[in-house]
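We now fix the convention by which a protein and its fold are recorded. Think of the row as the fold of the chain written in a discrete alphabet. Here is one such record, which you should read through line by line.
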Amino acid sequence: MKKAFIIVPWLILAFMLFSGCALFSSDTPQTTSESDQVNSQQTIYANNQPIHQYDYSPERDALQQIYDARMKDLNTWSVIFPPASSGIQPYVCPSVGYPIPYTTQFTNPDQVHTGSASYDPSVVLPQAEPNGLYTGNTDATWVRCVRKLSGGGSEVDAVYSEPAALTYPYPIKIENGSIIDAGGNSSFSIKTKLKG
């Protein structure tokens, strides 16, 4: 009788765990079959139409040049757009560098969690960009506008822009509500390499 008291609870627990796993499993025979078909089709594509490999990426090269430019204090010109309902005209300022998204952070906002079991998985954390910062999603930016002082000279001020902002590497102006190239030299341009 004592053995029954010990064995029966374990059998009930095992049954509950097994039936619970079956109830909460999302892999139905139909889902498994469809997944197998998709994987089979992808294998056919991979064999008959393999992904091309290239020895040069113009997009990667352009992004590297843009990154290099971001790491310098270039002369730029920025347009900050007020909300459309405000009736205020866009604001143009000479600026330094490109805008910094408002959600950019020095430190990783996530905490490290290393899991120890299948029910406690490890968490993948964001990786810092080469500029040492973590980025987020926002339209808000910090624009480093250059102000001419009344006594002569100038200073760089951080202007917060919640609506959209545009920054150009060459002088611009607004005429009749349109952004116009004001002429003048660009502080940065992408060098392209023509490859056959």
Summary: The first helix runs from residue 2 to 24. The longest strand covers residues 141-148. The chain is about 30% helix and 20% strand.
